[in-house]
Amino acid sequence: MKRMALTAAIALLAAPALAGGADDDTLVVNGEIEMTTKADAPDHLEGALDQVISGWHFRSDETQQLQTDDFENQGMIFVDAAYDAWNTVEGTEEKSCASCHDSPEDSMEGVRAVYPKWNEEAGEVRTLAQQINACRTERMGAEPYGYTSGEMANMEALISVQSRGMPMNVAIDGPVRETWEQGKEMYYTRYGQLELACASCHEQNYGNYIRADHLSQGQTNGFPVYRLKNAKLNTTHARFKGCVRDTRAETFQPGSPEFVALELYVASRGNGLSVEAPSVRN
Amino acid sequence: MASGVRPRVKVPRSASAGETITIKTLISHQMESGQRKDSDGNTIPRSIINRFVVDFNGENVLDVKMEPAISTNPYFEFEAKVPESGDFHFTWYDDDGSVYEDTQTIEVS
């Protein structure tokens, strides 16, 4: 009995080492893009978090390494696919993305880092996905992409790549404030039969296990994310939906005003972290 | 018919004679196993890359037979000793008869 108690005590002592908190590695992509993967928390997180940490730090060395080289990052395959889509003429206006925006390298630099953001003309907060679909329906006369479809994820990745290494800098004041407050309230609201808020896992328990996996802070700087479990790019709202489902709640729909508000708030929690998309996670 | 197939290869541009270099290859391909059914219960026909061959200056370096259990976007990394300058020639064979090729030149000093 005594020996068992002792073993248990040792197991408890050893637990922190196994718990998979953020490691101290540094992320450099292709030997040239130095990523800020830990940053002082933005002011609005005072009292909640001292430091914001990229989900990259919570993954195994093997998974982390995949993101350090574009050849091994399979998310880049989907970026290539989006280059084809970028130059493909679609819709009644007979335009492609390139007709207005030329090359993504020139026109899309820095775009990913500031989304979601206020669209003055539409009088609403828009996510990158909504803006892509607005372009498709209003300017190209084409069918919108499904909000969490592969085509959408690929296009988001192509646009995000142009901002890699730049700090997330989502505005939270001015006209977006109301939406941001709504997102914040959602973040701390418990949902579902399990009565879990976003904060229950991603603020109070990051670094701890959830079943066999490590909880991260749930940052969005790496989205769309290439996941090893499904070998494709995954969008922010698909992830939100999965999380809410896991609380055993009826979920909001991808692209709904609720998830847009939540995306704005969660993105603002990562202000200061580098845009990593497409990142690699398990 | 497989769509969106794109071979990618990474070979160092230069090496010294007799050096062992690392070669990385990846081909985007859905690798449909032939074991799955669609929503109507019909079997989705098998469509995979079934063979991957690498030659250096006409001499075979690698010849891989691939099976349905191999995952989507198959990635191969291997080492090769290069005695002289020349071309690495990569060939992937698709179930549908398509052949995808790539060639990379290496300078050996």
UniProtKB/TrEMBL annotation, chain A:
Iron is among the record's keywords: yes
EC number(s) on file: 2.8.5.2
Binding locations of substrate: 239
Cofactor note: Binds 2 heme groups per subunit.
Main location as per UniProt: periplasm
Pfam families on file: SoxA-TsdA_cyt-c
Protein location: Periplasm
Class of this enzyme: transferase
Signal peptide: 1-19
Residues that hold heme c 2 according to the record: 198, 201-202, 243
Domain Cytochrome c: 82-168
Protein name: SoxAX cytochrome complex subunit A
Organism: Allosediminivita pacifica
TrEMBL record, chain B:
Domain Sulphur oxidation protein SoxZ, chain residue ranges per copy: 10-104
Superkingdom of the source species: Bacteria
Pfam families reported for this sequence: SoxZ (PF08770)
Matching InterPro entries: Ig-like_fold, Ig_E-set, SoxZ, SoxZ_dom
Gene3D superfamilies: Immunoglobulins (2.60.40.10)
Protein name as catalogued: Sulfur-oxidizing protein SoxZ
